């Protein structure tokens, strides 16, 4: 196990009928006026918006609103939010939505307190020294953003989907009521599950040193996600499975699963380049890219890929190499089973676009640690993913 | 899964050569003068004391010392620490040792800021409104106190070993360098492992609702503890296994494993009464009491006991009841294998003392949730544990 620091000050409030407590949490944190950030209006339909506003009003919290954050959230919306927050002198940001809403809110919370252009924080040209307090109400379990300090935003002018982060951006309080996810369509549930599994992989395969305790956690998260995603595709309304999937997705990227190992985020980087150029859902992109990456790199640590196959898919027969390959195939089969695309062709990417995607991803190359990927490696992985 | 709040602001700094950073962490937290609390001097022998003092001096942190905290720590020592801290106007407490040192330090940190007698905080007659900042350097993995907000102290005048806690008592920073545990004797390693396993059980068996994700974590912790305790009893110097056991023991009681389930702390309560009256090591007491408790209550949730047997000891044959009983037997065998006592008789308890222990534990009855234990139930468990 590598040396590490484990630190996460977010208070996660989990369970049914917890959203109505948001006003009290804001009062306890000394917040008087918030910017509510949300997406395209699903929170109007499922009653979450009304519950939030009622709680704010009952607790005399003033608020203004920024709506219209879209999946693969964009920088222009972040800048709109920063302007609005400054003009209205809010002292906190309340994200109500999924990962795109929370990530945008993190950029707004940091951007309000940053002198330059907020994109500089993504480019590494500036760092977060101060941020507004952030609070979240999660409506789609996937990214883990509700309990971590990072975010991903797309600069649409430059065609870059990049990440940033700071310990100042841990949400103060995150409310996670799994029951509001009952109305999610199957594809969103599946995409969330794929995102969570990918986050686990990115730590799991990113270190060849002894990490038994962490591997136990990783494998446990993946098994839980697989079991309860299957249940939810049978019955979207199953609260038990909504809770298990939600909690597992939070644990997949709240920092714990990431400590003590080097990590390897190559697949996420490639997917970002894919989705910035094609605007496909992040989970769908990962379902395509992750197994292709696995096929390309498994020889770097055959034993670990065999361990995964054995512990997650109970594949116990054959050599380590055979197990490793069967495990990757089983993962791909699972993604197919839950309705995810598993080739680039399926989502409308043309073969002649692969160069362009590879070039975009290669801006940040070398990617990953298990096998540091150069531009040609990225292209090869896209080829494997193509059909 | 029950509704829950997950919150833990402790910064855990884990790995080799981390102790020397303590001074910097204190400076960052604005601390100028600390009370160093430690035990009977093992930190003098293994070099930890010198490293700590050098780091404090390099960072211009003033300090005074309280030594002599013993296992099953006592109230009189806590009161000595409170007096010393007040007289010297320290602004922080630095615990350097195992659970008994950290627990005593928590009571000191709270007691300094409490008007009445600190024991009132254990009796529930008062609550912690303010506390000195607490920092820890862990030298024995067992209790999890380095990353939680509770503690246990014995009031030797009243013969009560009771617990207390407050969110204000999470350590600000806890440093855990597993390499300093290389010199521990086998029985201390084993006792720490048994304590950690018991903490997991206390959540695992305390809830019949769906808790798949948490059960995965629980079972993963126990498997890790079993594997690496065995390794350490072969080679005390194995850093890999020291790290795995240390991290697993922290995760066993840092709050995460305890959320979403009711919990059942009956065994711990009974053990406290046993060890306050007989001054045996907490881990040894748990090795005796826990399997006896399991035998007495398993019928309340046979499926869960069978699941444990299957997932931890790979016992797949027979009815659920048979699996459950075999699992309890396997646990007892493991405790025996690592040199722990498994009967009260072995540790010198006389049969005629069982009444006295049961009476002491029954002060807090009913104990636990799986089967709320009355005085006679406690006596019956002690009878099972006797020989």
Automatic annotation (TrEMBL), chains A, B:
Residues 189-386 form the Fe-containing alcohol dehydrogenase-like C-terminal domain. PANTHER family: ALCOHOL DEHYDROGENASE YQHD (PTHR43633). Coiled coil: none annotated. This is Butanol dehydrogenase. GO terms for cellular component: cytosol. Residues 9-178 form the Alcohol dehydrogenase iron-type/glycerol dehydrogenase GldA domain. Pfam families: ADH_Fe_C, Fe-ADH. One of its GO terms (molecular function) is alcohol dehydrogenase (NADP+) activity. InterPro entries: ADH_Fe/GldA, ADH_Fe_C, ADH_Fe_CS, BDH-like. Keywords: Oxidoreductase.
């Amino acid at each position: 196990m590598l040396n590490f620091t484990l630190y996460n000050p977010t208070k996660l409030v989990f369970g049914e009928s917890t959203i109505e407590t948001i006003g009290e949490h804001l009062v306890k944190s000394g917040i008087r006026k918030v910017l509510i950030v949300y997406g395209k209006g699903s929170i109007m339909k499922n009653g979450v918006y009304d519950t939030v506003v009622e709680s704010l009003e009952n607790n005399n919290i003033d608020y203004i609103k920024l709506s219209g954050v879209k999946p693969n959230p964009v920088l222009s919306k972040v800048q709109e939010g920063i302007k609005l927050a400054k003009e209205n002198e809010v002292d906190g940001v309340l994200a109500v939505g999924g990962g795109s809403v929370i990530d945008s809110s993190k950029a707004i919370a940091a951007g309000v307190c940053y002198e330059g252009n907020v994109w500089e924080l993504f480019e590494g040209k500036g760092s977060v020294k101060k941020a507004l307090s952030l609070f979240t109400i999660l409506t789609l379990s996937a990214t883990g953003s509700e309990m971590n300090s990072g975010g991903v935003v797309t600069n649409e002018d430059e065609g870059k989907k990049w990440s940033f982060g700071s310990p100042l951006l841990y949400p103060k309080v995150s409310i996670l009521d799994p029951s509001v996810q009952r109305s999610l369509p199957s594809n969103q549930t599946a995409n969330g599950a794929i995102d969570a599994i990918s986050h686990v992989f990115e730590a799991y395969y990113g270190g060849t040193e002894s990490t038994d305790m962490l591997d136990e956690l990783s494998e446990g998260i993946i098994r839980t996600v697989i079991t309860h995603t299957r249940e939810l595709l049978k019955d979207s309304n199953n609260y038990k499975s909504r809770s298990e999937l939600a909690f597992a997705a939070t644990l997949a990227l709240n920092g714990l699963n990431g400590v003590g190992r080097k990590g390897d985020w190559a697949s996420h980087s490639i997917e970002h380049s894919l989705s910035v150029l094609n605007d496909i859902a992040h989970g769908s992109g990962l379902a395509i890219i992750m197994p292709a990456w696995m096929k390309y790199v498994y020889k770097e640590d055959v034993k670990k890929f065999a361990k995964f196959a054995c512990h997650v898919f109970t594949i116990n027969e054959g050599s380590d190499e055979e197990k490793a390959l069967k495990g990757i195939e089983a993962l791909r089969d699972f993604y197919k089973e839950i309705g995810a695309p598993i080739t680039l062709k399926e989502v409308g990417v043309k073969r002649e676009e692969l160069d362009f995607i590879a070039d975009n991803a290669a801006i940040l190359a070398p990617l990953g640690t298990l096998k540091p990927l150069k531009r040609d490696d990225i292209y090869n992985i896209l080829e494997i993913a193509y059909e």
